[in-house]
Each structure stands twice: as C-alpha cells, then as structure tokens.
Amino acid sequence: MARLIRTEKEVEGRYTEQWVVVEEDVLEQWPEGPLQTVGRPATRVDGLARARGEARYTQDLRLPGMLHAAVLRSPHARARVTRLDLEPAMAMAGIRGVIGPSDLEPLTNEPNYEGEAVAAVAADTVAQARAAVEAIDVEWEVLEPLLDAEQALAQKSFVTNPRDYERGDVERGLAEADAVVEAEYRTQSVLHNALETHQSACEWEGDTLVVYTSTQFLWGVRDEVAKAFQLPKDKVRVICRFMGGGFGAKGSAGDYTMIAAELAKRTGRPVHCRLDRREENVNSGNRNPTIQKLRLGARSDGTLTAIDAEYECLLGWDGWLPPTAGPAQMLYACENVRTVERGVRLNTPPMDAFRAPGFVEGTFGLECALDELAAKLDLDPLEVRRRNHADHDPMDERPFSAKELMECYRRAEPHWERRHEVRARSEGPVQRGVGLATQLWYGGGGPPSYAWVRLGGDGTVTVVTAMQDIGTGTRTAMAQIAAEELGIPLERVTVELGDTAHGPYAVVSGGSSTTPSMGPAVRSAAADVGRQLIEIAAQRFETEERVLRLENGKIVSDLGGSWAIEDITGLLEDGQILGNGARGPNPTGMRVLTFGIQVAEVAVDMETGEVVVERIYAVHDVGRVINPLGAESQIEGGIIQAIGHTLSEKRLLDPQTGKVLTRTLDSYKLPTFADVPEIVAELVDKPDAHLTNLGSKGLGEPPIVPTAAAIVNAIRDATGADVREIPVDRETMLRALAEAREREKRGAPAAV
Amino acid sequence: MVNGGLHEVDVPVGTTLADALRDVLGLTGTKIACGEGHCGACTVQLDGVPVLSCITLVHTVGEREVTTIEGLREHPLVQAFVEADATQCGFCTPGQIVSAAALLAATPRPGHDEIVHAMSGNLCRCGTYPKIERAIEAVAAENRGG
Amino acid sequence: MELRQPSSLADVDGGLPLAGGTEVVPLLRDGLVEAETLVDIRAVVPKGVSGTTIGAGTLLAELEADPEIPSALREACRLAASPQLRSMGTIGGNLLQATRCWYWRLKYPCFLHGGSTCHARQGEHREHAIFGNEQCASAHPSDPAAALLAVGATVRTDRRELPIGELYRLPTEDDRNVTALEPGELILELEVPRPEASHYLKAMDRARWAFPLVGVAAARFGDGVRLALAGVAPIPWALDSADALEQATPLPGTAYKVELARPLIRRALDAIA
Ligand SMILES: Cc1cc2nc3c(=O)[nH]c(=O)nc-3n(C[C@H](O)[C@H](O)[C@H](O)COP(=O)(O)OP(=O)(O)OC[C@H]3O[C@@H](n4cnc5c(N)ncnc54)[C@H](O)[C@@H]3O)c2cc1C
Ligand code: SF4
Ligand code: FES
Ligand code: FES
User: Fold this and answer.
1) A175: Cβ–Cβ under 8 A, 6 or more apart, which residues?
2) Which residues touch A383 (CB under 8 Å, ≥6 apart)?
3) What per-residue confidence (pLDDT) applies to A1?
4) How far apart are CA C58 and CA C40, in angstroms?
5) Which own/partner pairs from C164-167 qualify as long-range (CB within 8 Å, at least 24 positions apart)?
6) Class of the B17-70 domain?
C-alpha cells in the first residue's frame, strides 16, 4: 500500500528532508549467506555484448541525417565577450545551425572559468563544425581571474555558505589530551576521465525530444531538459543503454545536452554533441582540491578527546559543498568535535561529484592524522581505531541500522600482522612498510524507485526499469535478484533498462545507491509475479496457495509433488503475468552507512622517492552481497583509481591564467596495468537486518575512500617521513624524506 | 583488408584509420577515448601488431591486414573476459582484447611481467586490470593444455 | 593535404616526413605543424639493425628486443611510450619528437614558439629542465636519444654525418629549433658503437608509459665513462661526470630532479663498473 512519509533523502552525502510516497515493503529478507543465485558469482549478463564490441554507446550512435556539434568555449578563466559575430561560421561549408548566448541558457557572454560555453554550431561533420567554431569572430576583454585560495577566503568568495558543526567542547578536549597532532593536509584536484567522454545526441520526434546521452541519471536529465525547453516531463525521452563510465560526473544534463537539443530544434535534424578529451578534462567536473587544518587530541590510552577540523574546499566557480567533514564527524566516538567546511569560489572549472566526494578527501586527512597521533602515543594504529569505535551515530546518538566494522577490523588483523615480515624485507635503499585506514560512507539508497517484471508464456522473465548500468554490473545484479525470487535460473531473466519511455522511475547511479534502491524494487516486482503464479497454480492443481512455493524453476508443493513453471505459463499463451515493485522506506531513526578497512603495503626507494604499492587488503561491510564477482571488481576498480589519486594524478592549472595544463592523458597520468598491486578483497556479506527486503548497500564508493590514507600511513611506517599531501610524486616524497632526515639530525624522534 | 574482407575507402588525406573504420565501415567496436594516442582504446592490429588507429592515417595502411574487435569476436579471449569479469563499463574492452590477442599470438603462455609489459598501453579507468590478467591467464592455460 | 609515397630517396622532394606518424599525426591535428604535403618515408629510409648500424626507420619495438644493440639503448626503447606506440614509432622519429611542454603543446606564444617569454618558468614546470633552461625550460622527452648520446652514436643523414650531440642545439634568440637538421634533411642511419657496458635508468610518474622525469644513460669504453640524461634540458644532455650535476640551474619546481638524478647516476655507474 502506498504511504506518504516525510523522510531524509541522501545522495552523495547531501541530505534533504522531503515528502515521499513509498510502498510498504512487506517481504521478509532472505536468509543470510549465498542463496541459489544471489550471493553467488555471476558473470555479467551484458558482458558478451561489451567484449564483442557490439554494445552501442552514445558515441556509437549513427542516426540518419545526424549532425555534429562543436562548441566555442572560453579560452580565458574570466572574460567578457565584447564582440561576437557568428556570421562567418554560418557561411562555412556544411554548417546547418549556429547559436550564441542569446539563444540558449548555458551559453554566456561572461565566462567565469575556462571552458564555459559561449556559442555552438552544428555541421555535417565534426571537422566542419570545428572549423566553423574557429571561424567565429569573437573578441574578449580578459579580466583578472580569482585563483588564489587565500585571497578568495579573505574576500569571502564562497559558492555556498560555510557549514559549521560542533559537539562538546573542542578546546577542553584538546586540553585534556596527552598528545595532540596539529597539521595541515592537502589533496589535489583529480579528473574523472571516464573513457567515454560526456556527450548527447538529441532528436525531435514531433513534440517529443529524444535524448541519447551518456549519463548516470536518466530521470535527472529528463527533468532538467524538460524544464529548459518548457516541455511536459514525459515529452522528453532519455536513453542510455550502455555507458562508458561516469564516476560521479555524469549526474546532470550538461551544456552539451542543451546545445544538442537546441541545435536539433533549429535544424530539424538529430545533433550529436560530444566533448573531446580536452574539453572533458577542462569542462566536465573534477574532484575539488582541499586544504585541511586538523587538530586531534587523545589520551595516553588512545581515546580521542578532540577533533578540530577546518576544510577549505576549492570548488571552482560553481558546484556544491561535498561532505568533507563527514569522516571527522561520524567515524569515531569522540565527544568533542568541531568542523568548518568552506566552499571556496574561484575562476576555475566547477567541481562535480567524484566517487565518494568529500569522504575521500576527509578520510585522507583524518586517518593520516590519527596515525601520527598513534605514533606519538606509541600505540598500535589498529588498536586506536578499535578504542574509538562508534557504537552508535556520534552525531545524534541514532543507532546504526547495521555496523560490522569490528568484524572488518578482526578480519584485517592477519594482514596488519604482516607488517613485521614486510618491514623485514626492506633492503638497501628500499624500505617497506604497512599502513591502514578505516572507511565509512553512505550507500543505503532510498525511495522512490520502481521496477516491473513480466513473465511470458515461454517461462522467461523480463525485468523492466528505467535505470542505467554505468559499468558497475547493476544489470546483472537485478537479474540475479529476480531469478532468486522466482526460483529460476539466471539465464531465463532479461533486464531491459536505459530508457525513460520503457519503464518506471529509477534512482541516480551515484552515491552507491543503485543496488540498494533498485534491488528491493526488483525483488518486490518479482515477488508480485511469483504470487500471481502461485495463485494460478493453486487453481490449476486444485490446492491451496499457502502450500506452494517457487524453487529451482518449479512450483513445489509442501504436500509433495512439483510442476514446471512452464506448466502454468504455457496456459498463458500470449498472456503475461505482470508484477509491480517499489522500493520501501529506509528504517526510521537509524543511520545507514557502509564501513570497511584497507591495509596497504608499500616499498619506498629512500633515494629516488619512488613509491610502489605492493599489496592492498580490503574488507568492507556493505550488507548482503548480490554478486561477489562483480563486487570484487568494484573493489579492485576503486582501489586502482585511488592509487592514481595517491601517486600520479593531479590537475595542474597555470597559476597566472587559471587554465588547465594537464588536459591530455599523456600529462594527466592515470594508473596503467603496471601500477596495480596485488589486491585481496573481502566482504563481510551480512545482510543489514533493518534495511529493505534485501539488506544490501552500495559498493561503488566505499573502496576508494580509505586507500590514500592507508598508503600514506604505510609510507610513514616504511620511512618515518610525514607525507601530508597527495599525490605523493617524486618531489613530495623526496621533500618529506629530507624533512625526516633533518628532524633526525636535530635529535627529534621521527614519527615511528 | 579489414577482418579478412577487402575495402577501399574514399576519404580525404588526413583521415585516421579509426574514423574510417567507425564512420565509413560502421565498425564501431573500435572506441575513441582520446583521439591522440594517449589511451589505447582505439587499438587495432595491423598485420597482427597492435597499433593506435586514432593516429594512423588510413592512407598509410595500404594492403596491410587490419583486425578489429569485430574480427576477433570468436577469439577465446572474448569469452574469457566475460568469465573473469574483465569488463566494467566496457569502453576500453575492445582495445584490451585486441592487444591481448596480439600478445597471445606472439607469446602463447605469457608470464605476469610479459602481460604487464604488453598491456601497459591500454588504459582502463574502471580498473579492470586484475581481471584482464586473469582472463589472459585463462586462455594461456588453455594454450598450455592444447 | 596530399600524401606522397616515394619509393626511392631520389623521389623525395620536400614535404613533411612521416614515418610512424605517432608525433606527426597529433601535431597536425592540433595545428602545431602545418603541411601541404606529407611524405611517407617508410619505403626510403633504411630499417633494421646490421652490425653497428641501425636504420632510422627501425621500430622501437624491434630495438627493445634486439640482443645485439647496447643494453642502454635497448632498455631506453623498452621503457619508452607504450607497446602500440613502440610498434608504430621509429627511432628516427623518436629523436626528432617535439617537446611535451604543456605550454608549447597548448600553443602558448612562448619562446620556443617564437615568442619572448617562457611561460613554464613562471608557471607550472615540474616536468621541466635543470640544465640549459635559461630561455626555454623544456625537457627533452626522448629516452633513446640519451642512450645514443651516452654511447656516442653518429647520425647519418642524406647530406652528412654528425655526432648525435651535434644533432641537437639549444634554441636561441635567432633560431628556435632544437635540432640542427636542415629543412628536408632526412636521417637515414645511426652508427652505434658498442661500449663494454651500458645501462639506462628512468624515473617516471607511473610505472609505465610516461615520459622521463629523469633518464640516465651510462656507457663504459675502456676506462672512460660517458653519461647522458633525458628529461633534464631542452635537448639530450651529456654530463662530463657525476659532479657536473652540481652545475645544474634548476627552477623552483625542478630542484627535485637534481636530487633524483644523483642516485640514478650513481646506480647507472655502478651497473657498468
Ligand atoms: C603518448 C606518447 C608517449 C610517448 N612516450 C615516450 C617516452 O616515454 N619516451 C620516448 O623516448 N618517447 C616517447 N614517445 C615518443 C615516441 O617514441 C615517438 O613519437 C616515436 O618514436 C616517433 O616516431 P615516428 O616514426 O612515429 O615519428 P613521426 O611521427 O613519423 O615523426 C616525428 C618527427 O620526425 C620527423 N621524422 C621522422 N622520421 C624522420 C627521418 N628519418 N628523417 C627526418 N625526419 C624524420 C617527422 O617529420 C616528424 O617531425 C611517446 C609518444 C607518445 C605519443
Ligand atoms: S619551456 Fe620552452 S616550450 Fe615550454 S613554455 Fe617555456 S619556452 Fe615554451
Ligand atoms: S583513442 Fe586512440 S589512443 Fe586514445
Ligand atoms: S572497463 Fe571502463 S574503462 Fe575499462
């Protein structure tokens, strides 16, 4: 039954209170542990299409008559367009349409960061479109950009109001401490670099606008585009069947979608607007840099007495303030906590969500500082974490819906023990060490989210829902859940997704929310089908519904006897059994989070500053695991991205002009095959008893959260050097090593 | 020659092999992720050797045999990639398989270092590398068996 | 644009030489070089290794697997670029690759582009030079060039022979080129002496497929040792001795390269001792 409730909704750490209509979730959770299909490794249902190169991505679209767009973007971080003549572009070969700032909302005469769109053209070929953009006659008045964080702070240049939080009394807590660490940590800007760049192709079919787009949120794009073009929402149809990676930056429509739609409207032809790699790296979002000033105090037994943290988040011109203080506020049971987060506005390209926004940055500072504190107190870092374990939400005393962090710590123990043996393998200039860090993040998902399931006369099942699979394997997970509920083999289930015209609303694929939001909806839709199937079977076999159940592709009676599902579906002929499902509410009064810990082993060349990550052990608690194989891939992927963040990735801006220098993949260095350590991934796999009919949480983000801190803590273990900034490139490492030597010379004890 | 069939394309000088494959021949299995030689997504084989089609001018290909993912669909690596879960978003996957197929043709039973060396020109942002290695090893093990 | 595919040297008549195209094609795309005519020189430039002679058209992929060439060169080729790029790129093209300086690649009107300032000196220059960097602070990206410099290779063109050290020149006010090749001059072969021992070490930002932050090549002939560095000057840089490192003129953001070069030089020398 539908119910109206007021609830907290969370996406990537952004909470809003809102009314939602939710369906009751009446199904009991399945028992713990691997079931028939759920909880067992499954290969991707769409793996073959991808591996054979048959999967059609937005980039592969070839609509009849399709034109190609190119965009004139500001080459300056801050400027005013003093003259703009589009005529020369219109006169060029193959040009079908040209638009400027007066024609479309995101186009502007006053760009405030490099790459902001000013004008756009549509042409028969990409090359013609590019040439026409070159031909646009534009004059700029270049204005002084605001690039310096300190200056921006002094001017109170913020994107949003600063966010303050306080519990207890931090100064008292620090006064009570036996040891205090006070330090500044810095994280850099990193670029998403999904291999498929941001792009959309738009086509008008009568009064309906069809948008093919590489997105993490079909419905969000629908709403944005409908608003911009003043259309009823369902007059916008958004399609994305295969997409080549997002990592957070493909949550909204983007200027390219609006440009393609407007040019399609004007030309009457489909228009494809695709960012190239360089536009992508300037213009499609980034993880914002942070400057973190931390003070941590603890008693001699390791009990935290105070966490005081100030975060400057250099957001760029726009964006939102990610929950950078989240770990400081929630990770440990510390009585005295004060945090300040400031979202600094600069004339640099706007940030966007990037896999666990805020928590990646915040965890780095907090977990490094905690290790420095443990070293001062001569305590075992794992013990310190156990000692400060939060048994309930330290912010508001709410119980956790489930928390298996202690179990994670227990499982990590033998890997942490390896440190003696790892250190002993140091030889010559190469020193080895081990470090660890804890993870916490959201990942509970929430309503609304819906699914339909249909069972046809041939006994095959189709799950229909307008969600997207961004490469995380959700398509497969949904198929597993439906197969499990109906007691049929996985091969019999097809999942249709990726089209707002073909299926009900589904949640954004961000914030690790897809599986925990969609999974329960799919299960209840499948259960709806199962219930009807049993109703029919009871009539057909003249028995009572309550003695029948679905198992191994059969309808089984408790009274003995079983019938193949086809015995019933065969009766349907062209008929179908249709099931509806919705995601129920989240448990009220409880905090739903994911947890974990990673242990990193590194080798550091003390002379050349080379850091090699040799092994990472990861264990996470995300409730029930639907597909252990896909889950392992998610963990490996998150860790590998984190290794890039920690060692080699950094967006560089020209300090004078504020322009992005590392916009190509030769200068912006993603991890290669050769940068991958041994990765050992485990999951606790215990259903969250309070969360939905599945007890599952998301796994997209947790694995990327603690890696940087674990690696840097391992570096300190190996070398005694305090690294407080990522990426740890040669320069950073050599400087930290020199400082450590200097300290030793002066007689101060090194951190280890 | 593309995947065993002879094609003549009529495009201006300066057109890349990647564009010719995708736009003229409709072989969109070959992906473009940077278009400038920095990522490996567009890898195809020229006479069995992996090259970057986005920076190969189609007019320099001549009589050489081009093999794209479409020509490798029956290669055991395809199934092995699926079995090992070596594809996440899948955008790099065709290029990975083209490189891996060339490696296995030259070195049927590569060791870890050989795999790393041969595969380090194909970036994967999703981080499927460990699974790719597993897929290559699975096919190599079959090679050992047969 | 036109593509010529001459079959003999005599037929080559101007135009921009195209070998593997790994440099030329992206540079053309970005408008960093312009050409009416491309000349596919693969049929006219010698390839392969014979004795101590290496054809300029030899692929890096062949050289990385050739047991006969000096090990410094073999290792430099093995650690350069990526497998696909090594299977396309020739050694001749590698020696003539343009700088990776981001300002230059993004067409800032800098000194090397004929302008009057070096944007990198004032700006971001962590990958830049510690020697010869007064006017242009770019760092030469070629690994093999450092190895060839250390072993004392000679370059034979269609017009002359010159020691590889003389192939390169620092850009000056009057001439912003970093090579001494004349327009249209083709590199045909490299004459590569066999040292008694040689070694190449490379420090980069990730484990593979990155340009050298510092590359160190060392070669021993009898009692004499020759050292050359990649990634430290606008051109491949020869060092008389390890001590010569003290004469470096690093920028604030490249001082670490001096610290990095020191142990690499020592290790390379140890390896050939
Ligand atoms: C992403 C990337 C990473 C790389 N990483 C490295 C690295 O780590 N280390 C490294 O050393 N190199 C690296 N390289 C450079 C690579 O090795 C060279 O691009 C390649 O060797 C060039 O050879 P080519 O035959 O493709 O040259 P082309 O692109 O064909 O030509 C390059 C230049 O040389 C000229 N030319 C070519 N041959 C001759 C000749 N015989 N006579 C006269 N002129 C000629 C051309 O006109 C052009 O100006 C990298 C390149 C890329 C794109
Ligand atoms: S280092 Fe050289 S190429 Fe780079 S900006 Fe300076 S002058 Fe130009
Ligand atoms: S698309 Fe060719 S290398 Fe990236
Ligand atoms: S699978 Fe997504 S980039 Fe490799």
Assistant:
1) none
2) A302, A374
3) 62
4) 14
5) C164/C95, C164/C190, C164/C236, C165/C238, C167/C95
6) alpha beta
Strand arrangement of the beta sheet that strand A208-213 belongs to: A95-99, A117-123, A67-73, A271-274, A199-205, A208-213, A236-239
Residues of chain B contacting C208 with CB distance shorter than 8 Å: 116-117, 120
Determine the residue of chain A that is closest to B126 in CA distance.
A637
Contact at 8 Å (CB) between A342 and A152? no
C84: nearest CB among B13, B51, B59: B51
Q: In angstroms, rounded to a whole number, what is the distance separating the alpha carbons of residues C216 and C262?
A: 10
Contact list in A for residue B69 (CB cut-off 8 A) is 52-53
> Does residue A637's CB lie within 6 angstroms of at least one atom of ligand 4?
no
Q: Do C128 and C169 fall within a single domain?
A: yes
| Same domain flag for C97 and C196 | yes
Q: What pLDDT is attached to residue B145?
A: 63
C267 in helix, strand or coil? Answer: helix
Contact C51, C194 (CB under 8 A): no
A300 is a domain residue: no
Residue A654, pLDDT > 80, answer yes
- pLDDT grade for A412, boundaries at 50, 70 and 90: very high
Q: CB neighbours of C107 closer than 8 A, spacing ≥ 6?
A: C30, C31, C32, C113
Residue of B nearest to C211 (CA): B38
Domains held by chain C: number: 2
- In ligand 2, the atom with minimum distance to the C-alpha of C138 is 1
Q: What percent of chain A has pLDDT over 70?
A: 99
Separation between Cα atoms, residue A219 and residue A510, nearest integer Å: 13
Whether omega before C141 lies within 30 degrees of 0, making that bond cis, reads no
C32 and C85 inside one domain: no
Select the residue of C1, C25, C85 nearest B121 (Cβ to Cβ): C85
Mark residue C139 as left, alpha or beta (left: phi above 0; alpha: psi -120 to 50; beta: remaining).
beta
pLDDT band of residue A5 (cuts 50, 70, 90) is: confident
Q: What spacing in Å lies between the alpha carbon of C89 and ligand 1's midpoint?
A: 6
Q: Is the CATH code 1.10.150.120 the one for domain B72-144?
A: yes
Asked if residue C135 and residue C217 are part of one domain, the reply reads yes
Q: Does residue C129 line the site of ligand 1, with CB under 6 A?
A: no
CB atoms within 10 A of CB A17: 8
Domain final residue pick, A283, A316, A349: A283
Q: Note whether C1 and C93 are same-domain residues.
A: no
Check CB contact under 8 Å for A53 and B73.
Answer: yes
Task: Select the residue from A46, A50, A63, A212 to test the B interface by mutation, using most B Cβ atoms within 10 A.
Answer: A50
Q: Does one domain contain both C170 and C251? A: yes
**Residue A538, token pair as written in the block:** 């009871």
Which structural domain, as residue segments, surrounds residue C7? 1-44
Min CA distance, B3 vs chain A (Å)?
A: 14
Q: A104-159, pLDDT tens digit by residue?
A: 999 999 999 999 999 999 999 999 999 999 999 999 999 999 999 999 999 999 99
Does the C-beta of C80 come closer than 6 Å to ligand 1? Answer: yes
- Whole-prediction pTM: 0.97
Residue pair A175/A335 in contact (Cβ under 8 Å)? The answer is no
Instruction: Report pLDDT digits (tens) over C95-105.
Output: 999 999 999 99
Q: How confident is the model at residue A749 (pLDDT cuts 50, 70, 90)?
A: low
| For testing contact with chain B, the best of C82, C86, C204 (most B CBs within 10 A) | C82
CA distance A469 to chain B (A): 8
Q: Peptide bond preceding A448: is omega within 30 degrees of 0, i.e. cis?
A: yes
Instruction: State phi, psi for B59 to the nearest 5 degrees.
Output: -70, -10
